[in-house]
Amino acid sequence: MKEYYAARAKEYDQIYAKPERQTDLRLIEHWLPSRFEGARVLEVAAGTGYWTQFIAPVAGSVLGLDASAETLQIAQARPNNTRAQWLVGDAYALPAPVEAYDAAFAGFWFSHVPLARQKEFLLGLNKTLKSGARVVMLDNLYVEGNSTPLTKPDSEGNTYQVRKLADGSSHRVLKNYPNEFDLCELVAAFGEQATYTTWQYYWAFEYTLR
Question: Is residue 20 in some structural domain?
């Protein structure tokens, strides 16, 4: 996965240029910042900083973490991201903060987490947060005829997509599509005020840490 996104870094933002998704994107770009006003935010899998550019101007601070130095170079160059800080790191081994964060954001990351590691990731994320912190995840809905087709599930139930890059290389990428019930069940032991929001092509899930 790390090698795939490093290779894809320069062409990653093409996904945000799809004409049929523009209405959804404008709605989400307006919706997302209000979740983080004045907060100290940890952004996991920040990638090219596309979503950071809408969070950073209103947040108290943002630390964007990603496994790929190549994508973070693009993130740093965005004009609206000048107030953000960046760190190459592992989403499954998040560094302990000096002061716990008020909020966390993970955009288009959770779908790449193997089913067997979803709880592990969330528990690790929660350790970096204050009680009462808001967690927001944003990701893709599977839309027949628009989304990249899925392969047959593996023995653990994970699904995959075969993606091609501009250099002609093909990559088998884990891509799961959790539903509202799955997400609510995952956070039931430690989260409250869980909210699931959908647009035509995307979903968002929020919860508050107890």
Answer: yes
| Pairwise CA distance, residues 87 & 66, whole Å | 7
Which residues are paired to 172 by β-bridges?
A: 162
- The reported pTM is 0.95
Q: pLDDT tens digits, residue range 88-100?
A: 999 999 999 999 9
Q: Structural domain tally of the chain? A: 1
Span 100-130, pLDDT tens digits:
999 999 999 999 999 999 999 999 999 999 9
Q: Where in the chain does DSSP place strands (E)?
A: 40-44, 61-66, 85-88, 101-107, 129-140, 160-164, 170-174, 191-198, 202-209
Considering only CA atoms, give the Rg of the chain. 16
